[in-house]
Design goal:
By secondary structure, the protein is mainly beta. The protein contains one helix and five strands. The protein has one domain: Beta Barrel (OB fold (Dihydrolipoamide Acetyltransferase, E2P)).
Length: 86
C-alpha cells in the first residue's frame, strides 16, 4: 500500500527534531454548497531541524515514532537547495 503524501505549512518548530505542519483542504459545505477550508495539524519528524515556521513542506506517512508522531518531512531537492544566492 502506498504511503500518503501531504503538503502543508510549518506552524511550530519548538520541539527537537519535530515540526508541526498544518494541512489545509477545501471541501463543499453539505447544506450551503459553499467551498470552505478545513485544516488539521500533524506532528512530523525533522531529523536535522532545518525547517522553520512558514516553510511549505511535504510530509509522508511512516511508522509511529512517538505517541503523536507518525509522519516525516519529505526531503526534496528543492527543499535542500538555498532559496537565493545573492
Amino acid at each position: 500500500m502506498p504511503r500518503r503524501v501531504l503538503q502543508g505549512t510549518v506552524v511550530s518548530d519548538k520541539a527537537d527534531k519535530t515540526v508541526v505542519v498544518r494541512v489545509e483542504r477545501r471541501m463543499m459545505h453539505p447544506l450551503y454548497k459553499k467551498i470552505i477550508r478545513r485544516s488539521k495539524k500533524y506532528m512530523a519528524h525533522d531529523e536535522s531541524n532545518q525547517f522553520k515556521v512558514g516553510d511549505r513542506v511535504r510530509i509522508v506517512e511512516c511508522r509511529p515514532l512517538s505517541r503523536r508522531k507518525s509522519w516525516e518531512v519529505l526531503l526534496d531537492d528543492a527543499a535542500q537547495a538555498p532559496m537565493s544566492e545573492a
